Amino acid sequence: MAEEKKGLFQRLKEGLSKTHKGLVDKVDQAILGRKKIDEGLYDELEEILVTSDLGVQTSYKLIERVRERLRRGESDDAALVKKYLKEEILSILKGTGSGIDTRRAKPFVIMVVGVNGVGKTTTIGKLASRYRGEGRSVLLSAGDTFRAAAVEQLEVWGERSGCGVIKHKEGSDPSAVLFDALKAAQGRGTDILIADTAGRLHTKTNLMEELKKTRRVVEREAPGAPHEVLLVLDATTGQNAVSQAKLFKEAVEITGIVLTKLDGTAKGGVVISIVDELKIPVKFIGIGEGVEDLRPFEPSEFVEALF
Amino acid sequence: MFDNLSERLNIVFKKLRGHGTLTEANVQEALKEVRMALLEADVNFRVAKEFIDSVKVKAMGSEVMQSLTPGQQIIKIVRDELASLMGGVLSPIDTSARPPIPIMLVGLQGSGKTTTAGKLARYLKSKGKRPYLVPADVHRPAAILQLKRLGEQLSIDVFDSNAGDDPLKICQEAFRAADRGGYDYVILDTAGRLHIDEELMTELSAIKGSISPSEILFVADSMIGQDAVNVAKAFDERVGLTGVILTKLDGDARGGVALSVKAVTGKPIKFIGVGEKLDAFEPFHPDRMASRILGMGDVLTLIEKAHETFDQKKAEELGQKLKKDSFTLDDFKDQIQQMRKMGSFGDILGMIPGLGKLKGIKEMAPDEKDIKRIEAIINSMTRVERRDPAVLNGNRRLRIAKGSGTTVQDVNQLVKRHAEARKMMKMFTSGGMKGLKRGMPMFR
Ligand SMILES: Nc1nc2c(ncn2[C@@H]2O[C@H](COP(=O)(O)OP(=O)(O)OP(=O)(O)O)[C@@H](O)[C@H]2O)c(=O)[nH]1
Ligand SMILES: [Mg+2]
C-alpha cells in the first residue's frame, strides 16, 4: 500500500512536473529576485497564473486575495506569496470529492460525456479495468454510434478489462443502445454500467438534445440513475472548458469531472475556475494512455504536486 | 466562430468611437480591455503583450490621433494587426512537388487528425486530385479501422495497415504503393502523441527522415489553451512543421491558438475544420478571419460558398421576387434548403457583416429538426396561404398544425420567422449595402 501510494504520488508528480517547473520555478524566481513585494511581482504572478490556464478573472481574484492577506498581515515578505497562493487555490479545490461510491446502487450507472477527442472512451476503459480489479462486474454501452469505428474502439477496451459491451449498428439511435445495455445489466445483475457517448461540441443544440434524451431514457428505466454523469475535460483545453462545463451541466446535470492528459505539459488550471464558478467536483485525473493511468483526484495532492 | 471575442472587442470599440477626440488615456484604457479580451480567448500571454505594444505604437502616432475618426483608425489598425498576426494571406499547400506528394499529419491525442486526414483527402479529391490515405496510428484502439471506414465513405483508397505493423514500415510501403498506383498525394495519419514523449517523437522524425514529406501539418484543437505554443514549438523543433490545421472551429472557441500559433512558430494556418461532417473543411484566409473576429463579416467566403452551392437561376428568381416584395413561404422553404447546403446557419450568419452580432439572430436559424418541421408545415398549407400568410387565421392555423403533426405554436412561430426573414431580405435589397450598414453597429 505504502509502495502504491508512493508510486501514485511519484507518477502524479512526474505528470505534473512540467506544471511544477512552469509555475513554481517562476514563482520562486519571481520571489527570489526580490525580497520585498512590489507591483512587478504581481505582474509576474499574473503571467504565471494566466499561462497555467487559470484565466484572467480567476488569476486576478487569487492575486487580490493574496494581496489582501499580505496587507492585513502588514507583511511585505515575498516568501509568503507562494504560501498564500497555494492556500487560496486549495481552498477553492477543497471539498471537491475523491472518487465515486459505486455501491450505492445496482446497477450503478455512469454516463460519460464530453466534446470530441477529450478521452471519454479511454477513460471508460480505465474505469472499467479499475472496477474489474476490485472484483466488480462491469458492462459497457457503446453509445457512440456516430464516429467511425468508435464501437470497435470500445470493444478493445472491453477485451482489455474483461467486460462485456452492448452495441448496435453504426448510425443507430444512441438512446436505444443504452436502453438495451440497461436491460442487460439489470437482467444479469451487473454491478456497474458505464455508458460511452459520442463526442459533441457543447454548442450544438440538436446533439445536446440527443444527450438529454439518452439521459431521460435512463431515468425512466432505472429510477435514481444515472448515478454519475462524468464530464471529461482535456487538460490541454483553455478557457473554453468553462463553457463546456456550463453547457453540459445545463443539459445533463454533470456530477463530476474527469481531467485527462495531465501527463503532458498542460496545466489544467482551468478546472480551478470551473470548480470555483460551477461547483462541480473533479473526481478523477488521467495521466497516460494505459489502463492504470487513472487516479482519484486529491485536491491536496494536486496542489502539493503543483508546488 | 470567435463570437465571444468579437463581442468583447466590439464593446471596447463602441466606447472608443464614443469619444469625439481621443486622449492617450482613452487609448490606453481601450487597449487594456483588448488585452483582457485576448487573454480570455486563450491568446498566448506573450503574443497578447506584443500585439498590444505594437498596436499602441501605431495608434499613438499623430496621424491617427489627429485624424477626424481616430476610433475608426484604431479599429483598422487592430484589424490589420490581427490579420498579420495570423499570417496575412492564404498559404496554399504544396502542389508543385513530384507526385505522389507526401503530407504528414501530426499532433496531440484527440486533436482530430484522423477526421482531418479524411477531410483533407476529400478536399484534394474535389480539386481533381487522387489522394491515398495511410493509417499509421497503431497505438489508439481502432484508429486504423476509423480511417478505413472514412476512406470507404469517401471512395478514396486507403493503405491496408494493421495494428501490429511498425509505423515507419507502414509509411514506407504505403509510399511505394502510392507511387506505383499513380496517386497525387499520400496522406499519413500518425498517432496522437505528447510532444514530451521521446520515443514517439523519435518515431516521427524517423518517418520524416525516410519519406521527406512536402508538408508536415500540425493538427491542433482550436479549444487548446496556453500550452498550445509549447506543444507547437516542440513539434516544430523535432520534425519541422510546414503549417497548421485548426479543428473544431464550429464550437464557441475564442480562437486564441489561431492568433498565437503563427506568431510563435512562424508556420501559417493552412486549413480549418468547421464541423464533424467530412466536407466541413476550408482553406484559411487570415485577412478574412480578422474581419470575422471583429464582427465585420466575411462577405468573400460567403460569396464563394454561395457560388459553389447556390442554384444560380433560383438566386436570380429570388432577387426578382425580393424586388417585388413577394417573398412567399414557398420561397422561404426554398431558401432554407439552399442555405442548408452551404453549412450551418450560425456560420453563414457570422459571415454576413453585422448580422452575426444582432441579438437573437442565431435563434432564428433553424436546426435539422426545425427544418423538417418547417417543411411539413408549409406542405400542409394551401397555395393561397403560402403566397399570402396574412390570411392565416386561427382556424387555418389549427388545420395546418393537425395536418403537419405539429402544434399551433409551431405554425405561429414559422409565420413569425418568415415575416422576420422577409424584413431582413428587404433590408438587403432596398438599401443595398447602405441598408445593411444601418443595421451594423460597426459602421454607425
Ligand atoms: N497522454 C494522454 N492521452 C490520453 C489520455 N486520455 C486519453 N488519451 C488519448 O486521447 C485520444 C482520444 O481519446 P478517446 O478516448 O478516443 O477520446 P474520446 O473523447 O472518446 O473521443 P471521441 O469519441 O472521438 O470524441 C486517444 O489517443 C487516447 O489515447 C491521458 O490521460 N493522457
Ligand atoms: Mg469515444
Task: Explain this structure.
The complex is a heterodimer of chains A (307) and B (444). By secondary structure, chain A is of the alpha/beta class. Chain A folds into 2 domains: 2-93, Up-down Bundle (Four Helix Bundle (Hemerythrin (Met), subunit A)), CATH 1.20.120; 102-297, Rossmann fold, CATH 3.40.50.300. Chain A has 12 helices and 8 strands. Chain A is elongated. Chain A starts with a helix and ends with a helix. Mean pLDDT of chain A is 87; it is low at 1-9 and 15-20. With 444 residues, chain B is α/β, with parallel strands linked by helices. Chain B starts with a helix and ends in a 6-residue tail after the last helix. Chain B has 3 domains: 3-85, Four Helix Bundle (Hemerythrin (Met), subunit A) (Up-down Bundle); 101-296, P-loop containing nucleotide triphosphate hydrolases (Rossmann fold, 3-Layer(aba) Sandwich); 311-443, Orthogonal Bundle (434 Repressor (Amino-terminal Domain)), CATH 1.10.260. Mean pLDDT of chain B is 82; it is low at 430-444. Chains A and B meet through helix 3, helix 7 and helix 10 of A and helix 2, helix 7 and helix 10 of B.
